[in-house]
Amino acid sequence: MSFINDDFLLGNEHARKLYHEYAEDEPILDYHNHLPPEDVAGNRKFNDLFEIWLEGDHYKWRAMRCNGEAEDVCTGTASPRDKFQAWARTVPHTLRNPLYHWTHLELKRYFDIDELLNEDSAERIWAQANEKLQDDTMSAQGILKSFKVKGLCTTDDPIDRLEHHQTHAATTSSTKMYPTFRPDKALAVHQPEVFNPWLEQLAERCDCDIGSYNALLDALKQRHDDFHALGARVSDHGLSHCYADFISDAEASAIFDKVRTGNPASDSEQRNFASNLMLYFGQLDAEKGWTKQLHLGARRNNNTRKFKEIGPDTGFDSIGDWPQTDALAHYLDRLEQENCLPKIVLYNLNPNWNYSFGTMLGNFMDGKTPGKIQLGSGWWFLDQREAMEWQINALSNLGLLSRFIGMLTDSRSFMSFSRHEYFRRTLCDLLGRDMASGELPDDMELVGAMVKNICYQNAVTFTGLAV
User: Fold this and answer.
1) Domain 13-43+139-463 falls in which CATH fold?
2) Burial 50-69 (b: 16+ CB within 10 A, else e)
3) In this structure, which topology does domain 45-138 adopt according to CATH?
4) What is the tens place of the pLDDT at every residue in 19-31?
5) How far out from the chain centre does Cα 343 lie?
6) What is the pLDDT of residues 405-419, one digit of tens each?
């Protein structure tokens, strides 16, 4: 029997029935990813397995470094074939790491390859995959169609032109693509070398002068409106923790003026400024009925030397350990007090906070919107089987699993859509165990209906995206 078989991860008959009859054929709404919009709109064709599989994948780079592979075969100038060979050398050493599962699930689903990847099989797999990549079904849009991706939301800065979204919207593609409003650089007043050039680009995009704090707010609203016009219904923020040190508009204006002269805001001033902007972003989202995503808890760019050499998003990030509860409570409460609390998805990167987040979201349900504040799926270091179960169990114990909006890829790779399958198998196995032990009723229609909703329909209903 092949490693990736029909019943992979499904430990009993209940789990197998749930997956094959209720989860397997559900379409996908990938409501958060980092796919390049130009690749989708341009229907990119991939030249080889490196381009589609290793290019930009910091998960793999971390594992390769752990295995003693040189930086040259991770982010350096080695040939695509040599980089793939280094990955093949690494894979046998990833046993019990989720990469081992993902690697072989992806080889099976994308290329129908059952062979285990190692140094000896690398040449055969390289040749077979590269041949398959010549098929139209393996173009960017072909992959989206094959995996029944009905909609996807890319991650976009307010300064982005969004021309690729406009181009794609005019096509007859079976997959809708929408931008996601992610204004993280608007908070970077402690880094004038980042904030000021970004502000100039924002002014150019809005065709206006941004000479004041209020002008900044107007420009951000203009871009928020532009995103909405292209179908966006979701925003996103990548934060270490929530900001909740609110100040007056006059004080925020003074900080803005200081930074525009090239002087960095102090740590406390940055928190103050960011708090006010995050409140404003919440108001914009609530006004339009959007869903706000908060990705909390990453400690980024820990290796200073490597950051200077090869930049961010290259595999030198980790789980942070900031206190989360107080700031999160104050932020949500302030939005609620001002009657501008949007739908929110809280992604937690530190599992120590699962129960804190899980109890916090229950404080702000409005009695109208099912699951208005969501405990998001396992994120980044937690998008593997064990941590997925931690998140599902916390949500089940503290809220309503039946209202959960399910999985997303959060990925830069077109090879990541099988992560939805990985999640669905994990979900069905967990519920199947509960059914077998009598902790859930032996009612396949009851439990199966919940599975179907978690896999797809809940996300469609919650986000309001037109898919």
Assistant:
1) TIM Barrel (3.20.20)
2) bbbbbebbbbbbbbbbeeeb
3) uronate isomerase, domain 2, chain A (1.10.2020)
4) 999 999 999 999 9
5) 17
6) 999 999 999 999 999
